[in-house]
Structures
1.
Amino acid sequence: MINIPKGTKDVLPSQSYKWQYVENTAREVARVFNLKEIRTPVFEHTELFTRGVGDTTDVVNKEMYTFEDKGGRSVTLKPEGTAGAARLFIENGLASSPMPVKTYYITPCFRYERPQAGRLREFHQFGMEIFGAESFTQDAEVILAASSFLEKLGVRTRLEINSIGCKTCRAEYNAALRKYFAPHLDGMCPACRARFGKNPLRMLDCKEEACKKIAAAAPAITDYLCADCADHFAGLKNLLTAQGVEYTVNPRIVRGLDYYTKTVFEFVSDAIGAQGTVCGGGRYDGLLEELGASPLPAIGFAAGIERLLLLMENTSAAFPEDGKPLIYVAGLDDACRAEAFKTVCFLRSKGIAAETDHTGRSVKAQFKYADKLGVKFVAVIGGDELASGEIKIKNMSSGEQTAVKCADIYAYLTKE
């Protein structure tokens, strides 16, 4: 027996309709907000993530699936979607397109983490990435798109927002953080001590309990914003308020990736344990430049599909019913089975979901199987039906039986 790898999960036939519901909802929200789908490779050159995501992040330092291919090149299974989207934007010359360029994706991602509820080593994200708009109105639109997606799924969350500034105000804030953390370094983990010199902002994102306690009293970035960042954040808050969007400012949100600037946000739930963030994102105005392109503002978000499904199941959110065949066509013997198969093929060509037997069941067993499938109608073809050209159709709810000419079966089903 070969078992599934740790930290991965099968999607069973009884569950796949839930995935399709979430994905279809994502695509509908993307359509309404005028986003076009992109698809990037499952693996990229490792440098894309070390430069884009940041070499002081947990993702790069601890969680990436990195290996050398047969050509001796270092490649990495993508741990998130934004860096690949930015690479796609640059490499395919989309900077010459009318701005903003508005994109979305539904993609698998991979991180080597300790598996737990809502956290897998292979997981899936619905994400939006928008390039070329620097206004806080674009920030508001992205947050509203995320909010609309969650509301359509019936998911209850709270929105937390923050601004982590730009290069100008980040330098002053980093100096304040170093001054604060310096006396506490001996009590912090090795990763935080390494981040102290390179990127002290990352120390606020540490998951070690001792480090979290020390970081709790650190200075807040919102006290160090430059005038431009402060105005940008104020404009965003005013727009959200005007749209009736409830939010709280959480100065501890820094997100786990280095490319973020200015606005960051998270939609959080307490219903799925420690992995409470079901959707998060923000602005990353410096990422394209970091990857070698001309500077261009950008913003996006990603929502974890597994976490969303877990939250929906834990809170009894309503899923639509799984799709069922409309009709099952049963045959009494080989000749009748052949006619049943012909009838099913005709109905399917017309867009009717239909099913028939392929295992040699008796008529009684076929009725039991049809009942398990949840079909609305069962049609029975026997010798008399072959001779008369009529099929008896039973309504499984009412028990009513109707004789219908073979040529009229499609009209009968669509009339119902």
Note: The two ends are 48 Å apart (CA to CA).
2.
Amino acid sequence: MNKFSERLKDLRAENGLTRAQLAEKLNVSPRLVAYWENGQRECSFDMLIAIADLFASSADYLLGRTEF
């Protein structure tokens, strides 16, 4: 599992969201969220920014480049 997968899963859990709830907020399917969390697919740059904005995080954090 890569850093993005781990951090996405952790942020989703910390915010009390199910995969379905996160998918709805991002306007994607729950299966796609599962693929991201399992490291089977990567998201687009636009989606990376949307995820960072949703969790008030940075793209660098999601990608494992920083610890904050």
Note: Helices lie at 3-14, 19-26, 30-37, 45-54, 59-62.
3.
Amino acid sequence: MCVFCKGKLIQSQTDYIEKNKNLIALVRDVPCEKCGQCGETYFENNTVLELEQVLNKIQDTSSEITLTVMDYKKIAA
């Protein structure tokens, strides 16, 4: 149940965008639950941990502004 509007959550996928210091990353097709009423997106804990791990590695190796586009299925494999 959505914490904002109490709508029903459905399994879905979304694009995740991270903007932090010298990194702009777009991760496509990230699994999530999305509210069917207001569209609010929720991620499972393991999904968030996987995203953080990959994004931290990219952040550590980037010295200039970096734009990275990734497919979630490839990074979570």
Note: Helices lie at 45-61, 72-75.
